[in-house]
Amino acid sequence: MTKREQIEKKLEKFIPAAFTGYIADLLFSSKVAFKVSKPRKTKLGDYRPPFQSEFHRITVNGDLNPYQFLITTLHEFAHMQTYIDHGWKVKAHGAEWQMKFSQLLAPLLEAEEIPRDIKLALRNSVNKPKASSCTDVALSRVLKRYDKQTDSVLTVEELRENECFILNNKSFKRGKLRRKRYMCEELGTGKLYLVHCLAEVKRIED
Q1: What pLDDT, in 10s, does the model give residues 32-77?
Q2: Count of beta carbons in the 10 Å neighbourhood of residue 51
Q3: Helix, strand or coil for residue 195?
Q4: What SS3 state is found at 104?
Q5: What is the CA radius of gyration of the chain?
Q6: Burial annotation 64-75 (CB, 10 A radius, 16+ → b, else e)
Q7: Where is the SprT-like domain (predicted)?
Q8: 3-class DSSP state for residue 159?
Q9: Could you tell me whether strands 181-186 and 56-61 are parallel, antiparallel, or unpaired per DSSP bridges?
Q10: What is the mean pLDDT of residues 79-104?
Q11: What CATH number was assigned to the domain covering residues 154-203?
Q12: N or C: which end of the chain has fewer CB within 10 A?
């Protein structure tokens, strides 16, 4: 088995099989170290330019569903390609990155293996003037449909106002929505926190 075949075989664990060749092409097109990372609460993926090394570095969380893993991988490759062309002279999710990301997404938008609702959400996302797949709530909401379902887990936006929940071993009461986050009160301390609408929580039953 060639090195490329080995890589494609490993990728099958994380992305739809139809796209292993596409990602392998990207991996072999540049000097990049690609790593599947442990779950991180603050990010889905990360790109780092070469530093004391000739390799670019991309990491993607290994707990993502196959479609989210694929899109996050392309998101980070768009950062890499933007850096290669422009260095640090442009914004992280500026017009240059958007163009690269749109180009990388093009094969997905034409592929039968990508569900229709994801295609629609991707098209809407890349057409937004300040789009970023990691901050687009509508896209994240659609991708979340393909997560492995856990009966006891739901998102903050699925709760009613004043309903209580547990997040990171702390108890909260849900308040009103402020843009993409809910103002929530920590029970016992009265401290207020802004919690993302798609944060996964456990409802406190009465």
Answers
A1: 999 999 998 889 999 999 988 889 999 999 999 999 999 999 999 9
A2: 8
A3: strand
A4: helix
A5: 19
A6: bebbbbbbbbbb
A7: 30-104
A8: coil
A9: unpaired
A10: 94
A11: 2.30.30
A12: C
Q: How many residues does the chain have?
A: 206
How would you class 2 by CB atoms within 10 Å of its CB: exposed for 0-12, middle for 13-18, buried for 19 or more? Answer: exposed
Q: Which two tokens stand for residue 110?
A: 């034409």
Strands across the sheet containing 170-178: 154-155, 200-203, 164-167, 170-178, 181-186, 192-196
Q: What is the mean pLDDT of residues 116-133?
A: 80
The structure tokens 């090394």 sit at: 53
Task: Give the DSSP per-residue string, 145-191.
Answer: TTSPP-TT-EEGGGSPTT-EEEETTEEEEEEEEETTEEEEEETTT--
Helix/strand/coil for 85: helix
Whether 198 contacts 144, CB under 8 Å: yes
Phi, psi for 2 (deg, rounded to 5): -70, 165
**Tokens 């994240």 belong to which residue?**
140
Determine the residue type at 25. Answer: D
Q: Partners of 59 in the beta sheet?
A: 35, 46
What contacts 37, CB < 8 A, 6 or more positions away?
Answer: 45, 46, 59, 60, 61, 62
Q: Would you kindly state where each structural domain of the chain is located, as residue ranges?
A: 3-144, 154-203
Q: Is 109 exposed, middle or buried (0-12, 13-18, 19+ CB in 10 A)?
A: middle
Write out the two tokens for 35. 């790593």
